[in-house]
Structure formats: structure tokens, C-alpha cells
Design goal:
By secondary structure, the chain is an alpha+beta fold. Helix content is 38%, strand content 32%. The longest helix is centred in the C-terminal third of the chain and has 15 residues.
């Protein structure tokens, strides 16, 4: 289970191997608590994740619930191919990602 820790969100331009050659911008909770039931020893785990790592956990949990990042994109004009992203958006995204990591952690 992933639960948001607060109302803050971050925009993340995501891609996915399930949807080759497509990217789009989604809003993800900036900080989340991750609970996963039991490991092999019967121990429950609870972790907190922030920034891009929080976004990754949310992206992967969406897969388990049958949701793709496409379903989370609010503005279809953010869709791009990987080539378009590299040519027109990569530098801006990398600067944004660095700022998110600096502010929230990985």
C-alpha cells in the first residue's frame, strides 16, 4: 500500500516499457508511506519515500492495479516520443528532476 504524506505533488515526465516510445507528464505525491505486508520471516515493512523515488513506487503500484501512466496524464499535450522528449524537453526535465531531488531527496 502507498499512501501520500501530505498534499504536495510533483510533476514527473514518465515513460514505461509497457508503452514503448511514449512519455507524458503526471502529477505524483511528493512523499509517500509504503507498507508491504509480510516478508518471508512474517515481518511487516513500512518505509517513507520522497521525490522521484516516491513517484516510482506510485508508478509501479499503478501497474498492480491495472493503471498505466497514460491514465494519469491530465494534459495530453505533454505526450511525446522519446526522440521528441530528448530534443525538446530533456534539459528542462533534468533541471526539474535535480531541483526535486535537492528539495525532497531521491
Amino acid at each position: 500500500m502507498v499512501e501520500p504524506l501530505g498534499d504536495e505533488t510533483v510533476e514527473i515526465n514518465e515513460g514505461c516499457l509497457s508503452v514503448p516510445d511514449l512519455r507524458g507528464t503526471v502529477d505524483r505525491a511528493a512523499s509517500v508511506r509504503v507498507r508491504y505486508p509480510l516478508d518471508r520471516e512474517g515481518t511487516e515493512h513500512v518505509e517513507e519515500r520522497r521525490g522521484l523515488t516516491a513517484g516510482t513506487f506510485q508508478h509501479e503500484l499503478d501497474h498492480l492495479n491495472g493503471v498505466l501512466f497514460l491514465d494519469r496524464v491530465r494534459d495530453p499535450s505533454t505526450f511525446s516520443t522519446w526522440d521528441q522528449f530528448a530534443r525538446h524537453h530533456r534539459e528542462e526535465f533534468e533541471a526539474h528532476a535535480r531541483a526535486v531531488v535537492e528539495r525532497l531527496g531521491s
